[in-house]
């Protein structure tokens, strides 16, 4: 079953394994991905779908050190090299658009983080001066929230110009879109806050603007309901996420990417409400085969794998053969050079295709 093809709104995927988005912090010059980044993704082109690391849609959306962007011509040119390399290797690639919101530090970005409300998360962030507390963010005005929606749409257009097959909006893991959904990071009293309808508005308007800019069939969104990540409180997740997923369902997006949360009931409810393709990433799975075995029978169309795709450029082949996996070394996850990036070995195969 994981090795059967899938039609993702017209994009033919050869298998059901997606590479989950993973920040690697190796864009050292002006947020431009390097040739090494092109090699890293091209090595993983046998994924049914590659979803890139988080990419900031604007400089204001940057939070971490050395992350790439999609808001300058030079960044578009850098990504063009990446998408060309992936396509030449037979792959398909979506860019994950990520605005970090209140998770950031002036030492990384030159500006205070921006957020739905001026509420400091109990969180720390890596900076050139070591780990530091995340500062109190600046609250976005209503006009600035609307401008941020447009920034996402502009970045999506640039992604298509750069050769991406589509974009995924990062609505998970405690960053800007997720902050708007929560009860404690979003204390706004304008139309982007307050009621459940108000708190889902930023996510829905952003998804609509991006779908209008590049087509719904090229637009996906990632969510991580009620995981308590980055100090977010979501006690009403059982109301917020069904409302969000129902509103997104009307946009006919290519996919919803669910980071499976602790509530089986909510995970199942989301599958029921979502009419299009569902990608599931299960952080609790010890091995990719476990995630595949658990989620494809429960209605996932694709399973996204993070750390084991980082460490195994040929992960689909290894899973098909039942071959052993390289273990990820997370000490080289963020920053550094080719080590722990492009030097994880593929299987050495005999001509018959069996592991050597
Ligand atoms: C090094 C690293 C960087 C990550 N960066 C991102 C990111 O940029 N965007 C995102 O949505 N998730 C990010 N994640 C989360 C992964 O996509 C995934 O949800 C998580 O690793 C759990 O899946 P796994 O057990 O298959 O790795 C990152 C994870 C790792 C290990």
From TrEMBL:
<dbReference type="InterPro" id="IPR001155">
    <property type="entry name" value="OxRdtase_FMN_N"/>
</dbReference>
<dbReference type="GO" id="GO:0010181">
    <property type="term" value="F:FMN binding"/>
</dbReference>
<dbReference type="InterPro" id="IPR045247">
    <property type="entry name" value="Oye-like"/>
</dbReference>
<feature type="domain" description="NADH:flavin oxidoreductase/NADH oxidase N-terminal">
    <location>
        <begin position="3"/>
        <end position="325"/>
    </location>
</feature>
<dbReference type="InterPro" id="IPR013785">
    <property type="entry name" value="Aldolase_TIM"/>
</dbReference>
<dbReference type="Pfam" id="PF00724">
    <property type="entry name" value="Oxidored_FMN"/>
</dbReference>
<dbReference type="GO" id="GO:0016628">
    <property type="term" value="F:oxidoreductase activity, acting on the CH-CH group of donors, NAD or NADP as acceptor"/>
</dbReference>
<comment type="similarity">
    <text>Belongs to the NADH:flavin oxidoreductase/NADH oxidase family.</text>
</comment>
<protein>
    <submittedName>
        <fullName>N-ethylmaleimide reductase</fullName>
        <ecNumber>1.-.-.-</ecNumber>
    </submittedName>
</protein>
<dbReference type="GO" id="GO:0005829">
    <property type="term" value="C:cytosol"/>
</dbReference>
<keyword id="KW-0560">Oxidoreductase</keyword>
């Amino acid at each position: 079953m994981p090795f059967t093809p899938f039609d993702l709104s017209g994009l033919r995927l050869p298998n059901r394994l997606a590479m989950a988005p993973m920040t690697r912090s190796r864009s050292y010059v002006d947020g431009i991905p390097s040739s090494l980044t092109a090699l890293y993704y091209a090595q993983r082109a046998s994924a049914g779908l590659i979803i890139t690391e988080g990419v900031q849609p604007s400089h204001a959306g940057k939070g971490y050190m050395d992350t790439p962007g999609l808001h300058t011509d030079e960044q578009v040119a850098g990504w063009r090299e990446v998408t060309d390399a992936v396509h030449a290797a037979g792959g398909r690639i979506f860019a994950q658009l990520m605005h970090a919101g209140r998770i950031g530090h002036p030492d990384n970005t030159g500006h205070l983080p921006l957020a739905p409300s001026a509420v400091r998360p109990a969180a720390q962030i890596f900076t050139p001066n070591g780990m530091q507390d995340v500062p109190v963010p600046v609250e976005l005005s209503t006009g600035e929230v609307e401008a941020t929606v447009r920034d996402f749409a502009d970045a999506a257009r640039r992604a298509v110009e750069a050769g991406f097959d589509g974009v995924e909006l990062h609505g998970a893991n405690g960053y800007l879109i997720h902050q708007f959904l929560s009860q404690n990071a979003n204390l706004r009293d304008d139309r982007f806050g307050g009621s459940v309808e108000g708190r889902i508005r930023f996510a829905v308007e952003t998804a609509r603007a991006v779908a209008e800019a590049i087509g719904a069939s090229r637009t996906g969104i990632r969510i991580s309901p009620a995981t308590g990540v980055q100090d977010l409180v979501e006690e009403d997740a059982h109301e917020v996420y069904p409302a969000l997923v129902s509103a997104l369902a009307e946009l006919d997006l290519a996919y919803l990417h669910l980071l499976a949360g602790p509530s089986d009931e909510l995970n199942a409810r989301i599958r029921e409400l979502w009419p299009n393709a569902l990608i599931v990433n299960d952080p609790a799975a010890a091995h990719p085969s476990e995630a595949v075995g658990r989620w494809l029978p429960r209605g996932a169309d694709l399973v996204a794998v993070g750390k084991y795709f980082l460490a195994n450029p040929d992960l689909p082949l290894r899973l098909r053969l039942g071959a052993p996996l390289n273990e990820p070394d997370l000490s080289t996850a963020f920053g550094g050079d080719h080590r722990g990036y492009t030097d994880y070995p593929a299987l050495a195969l005999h001509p018959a295709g069996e592991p050597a």
